[in-house]
């Protein structure tokens, strides 16, 4: 009965989404009458109950996975009774139907949170926002109930399940997908705010302040999800890389780029009442990218370790939803953009001008990634087979990204509205000196470093210094929390950039046919294969290499790379052994044994590679500090207004 109860809760939630949409639409049309006011008043509680029902449905699906109910088709296809409990729970969203139910649950709960907490928007704009949120949810409810029922029964019930993809049997599954979904759905909220504002024509600082926490939260979750996914792929896939420009990786990067541009734009609108129409457009673009990512992952048109292998019918359903939502929003923008009054003007040499440049560069990078991702798909549809890989993306986005970093270093040094060129040049003295010093040191000690890595290391040093500029000559104890957030986030970008450049410039790699007892040098490390033997885990067996590694006069360390076999489903995987030090990581992967009894062994020494993920964590922390700082200030201001009344 649990499956039937979960399906019933999903149907009731869908019905309430339809009721929410109709009540909001009719209420807005009849808002001058008492009945219109009653309809508008009903929208908030309906949105809250809808969110609770969706959450109940998802909780019941988790229960089915925990209980290993093999009479449910989804459980039988994606779980196993012997699987560890963590993977039973995480396996709930490690498949197409479960992940889509998680998506719509977060979407519905977000709508309920707007209804429960939002007090800054005027009644009409809030109602239109909840109507847009209900329309999005209704499409995904229909998708689940018609094309992707997560509670479908299997008759007769399976004796046991097929198990979860071994590449997903990792703690990263419990963390990476949910954070990405929170980010994607947060952008749907920004989209709904933009639609609501376009319907009512009320666009201004109050609207931006209401939307900003949702954009910030979505951006933080996307940053966490992408950073965690990068490290998960790095250690799990055994390729020794942290980003592969895989189409589905790009599908998560594109919403992040759009959300970053939107975040800066909404700050200008909230602080200086500028970029009104541009902010609305970016909200539409950001959600468009999250919808496009959903389509790419679930349409079956991509072959990727990240993609769900599903039938094209489901992809067509999502494509229709994408066309309806995004096409409708763009049409609404075209019809209503002329009614949105222009915001306040500003000089090019100002903080607003710097943020506009930031937006333009992010948009250009987004366009390049979008074209590089979709062009091979379009070419394949026309009978041409081609591949767009890392060389294209690195050469096209790399230089623009470096210009963007330079703009990030300058932007916080500028004043609002207008600034003086000579004053700005004076403020740039310390960052420029740091950049030149870093490039000179790199050139002296590593003269074979490529020009892009050399410039990147210099810009990382310059940005690291410039990121603290907002704190110069200020009382640090009285500096607002959101200012600290900006400082930490920008410093995190500098740290990540330094890690990326160091990994690209200084990594040493060696592939050997290893003989027992023979030392092999990789960077500063001497690695010896002492032997290979069996190992066993909860639901796998393995061949495990026993390595000893020594650096200079340091003590010997032990490393245990494995080649694992999972019986359900039958899959072989390579499990890398990684030794982390303050200045980098030693990375080892065990391959196959050849006819002479030698073992293929791939070794990397990756200096300062951990800075990539440490910087990503700082970026997310900075966003979280900004979010809480903004919320605290809004709450304090609201309390003061209440006391004044």
Q: List the total number of helices.
A: 18
Helix content percent band:
55-70%
What structural class is derived from the secondary structure elements?
alpha+beta
Anisotropy-based shape: globular
Write down how many β-strands occur, each being a DSSP E stretch of 2 or more residues.
10
Average pLDDT: 89
C-alpha Rg (nearest Å) = 26 Å
Which regions are unreliable across 5 or more consecutive residues at pLDDT < 50?
A: none
Query: In this structure, how is the largest beta sheet organized?
Result: 6 strands, antiparallel
Oligomer state of the chains in this structure:
single chain
Q: List the secondary-structure elements in sequence, H or E.
A: HHHHHHHHHHHHHHHHHEEEEEEEEEEH
Q: What is the terminal separation in angstroms?
A: 54 Å
Strand content: 5-15%
Short précis:
This protein has 645 residues and is of the alpha+beta class. The chain has helices at residues 2-29, 34-66, 73-78, 85-90, 96-117, 123-147, 176-200, 205-236, 247-272, 276-298, 312-336, 351-381, 390-410, 421-427, 429-445, 451-466, 481-506, 611-644; strands at 508-514, 519-522, 525-536, 541-551, 557-559, 562-567, 570-575, 577-581, 584-593, 599-607. A hairpin with a 5-residue loop joins strand 4 and strand 5.
């Amino acid at each position: 009965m649990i499956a039937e109860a979960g399906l019933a809760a999903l149907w009731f939630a869908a019905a309430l989404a339809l009721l929410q949409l109709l009540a909001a639409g009719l209420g807005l049309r009849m808002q001058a009458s008492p009945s219109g006011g009653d309809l508008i008043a009903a929208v908030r509680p309906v949105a809250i109950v809808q969110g609770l029902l969706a959450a109940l449905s998802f909780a019941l699906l988790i229960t089915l996975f925990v209980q290993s109910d093999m009479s449910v088709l989804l459980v039988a296809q994606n779980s196993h009774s012997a699987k560890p409990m963590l993977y039973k729970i995480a396996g709930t969203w490690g498949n197409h139907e479960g992940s889509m139910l998680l998506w719509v649950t977060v979407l519905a709960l977000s709508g309920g949170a707007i209804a429960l907490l939002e007090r800054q928007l005027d009644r009409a704009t809030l109602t239109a926002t909840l109507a847009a949120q209900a329309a999005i949810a209704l499409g995904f409810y229909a998708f689940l109930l018609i094309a992707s029922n997560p509670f479908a029964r299997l008759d007769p019930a399976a004796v046991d399940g097929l198990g979860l993809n071994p590449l997903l049997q990792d703690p990263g599954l419990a963390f990476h997908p949910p954070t990405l979904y929170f980010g994607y759905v947060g952008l749907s909220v920004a989209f709904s705010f933009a639609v609501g504002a376009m319907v009512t024509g009320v666009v201004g600082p109050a609207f931006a302040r209401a939307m900003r926490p949702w954009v910030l939260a979505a951006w933080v979750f996307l940053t966490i999800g992408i950073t965690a996914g990068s490290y998960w792929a790095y250690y799990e896939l055994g390729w020794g890389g942290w980003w592969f420009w895989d189409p589905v990786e790009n599908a998560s990067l594109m919403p992040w780029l759009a959300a970053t541009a939107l975040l800066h734009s909404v700050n200008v609108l909230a602080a200086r009442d500028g970029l009104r129409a541009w902010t609305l457009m970016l909200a539409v673009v950001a959600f468009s990218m999250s919808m496009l990512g959903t389509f790419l992952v679930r349409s079956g048109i991509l072959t990727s370790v990240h993609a769900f292998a599903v039938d094209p019918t489901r992809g067509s359903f999502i494509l229709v939803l994408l066309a309806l939502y995004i096409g409708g929003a763009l049409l609404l923008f075209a019809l209503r953009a002329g009614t949105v009054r222009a915001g306040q003007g500003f000089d090019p040499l100002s903080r607003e001008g710097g943020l506009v440049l930031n937006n333009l560069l992010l948009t250009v990078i987004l366009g390049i990634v979008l074209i590089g991702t979709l062009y091979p798909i379009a070419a394949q549809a026309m009978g041409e087979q081609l591949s767009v890989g890392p060389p294209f993306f690195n050469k096209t986005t790399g230089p623009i990204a470096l210009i963007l970093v330079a703009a990030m270093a300058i932007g916080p040094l500028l004043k609002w509205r207008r600034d003086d060129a000579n004053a700005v040049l004076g403020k740039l003295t310390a960052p420029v000196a740091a950049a030149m010093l870093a490039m000179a040191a790199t050139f002296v000690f590593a003269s074979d470093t490529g020009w892009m890595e050399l410039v990147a290391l210099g810009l990382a040093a310059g940005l690291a210094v410039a990121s603290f500029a907002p704190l110069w000559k200020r009382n640090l104890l009285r500096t607002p929390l959101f200012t600290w957030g900006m400082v930490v986030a920008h410093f995190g970008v500098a740290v990540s950039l330094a890690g990326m450049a160091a990994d690209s410039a200084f990594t040493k790699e060696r592939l050997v046919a290893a003989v027992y007892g023979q030392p092999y040098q990789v960077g500063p490390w001497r690695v010896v294969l002492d032997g290979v033997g069996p190992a066993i885990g909860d639901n796998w067996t393995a061949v495990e290499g026993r390595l000893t590694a020594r650096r200079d006069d340091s003590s010997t360390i032990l490393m245990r790379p494995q080649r694992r076999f999972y019986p359900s489903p039958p899959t072989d995987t390579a499990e890398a052994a990684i030794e982390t030090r303050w200045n980098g990581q030693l990375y080892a992967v065990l391959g196959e044994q050849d006819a002479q009894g030698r073992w293929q062994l791939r070794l990397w020494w990756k200096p300062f590679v951990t800075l990539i993920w440490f910087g990503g964590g700082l970026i997310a922390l900075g966003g979280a500090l900004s979010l809480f700082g903004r919320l605290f200030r809004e709450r304090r201001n609201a309390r003061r207004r209440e006391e004044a009344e």
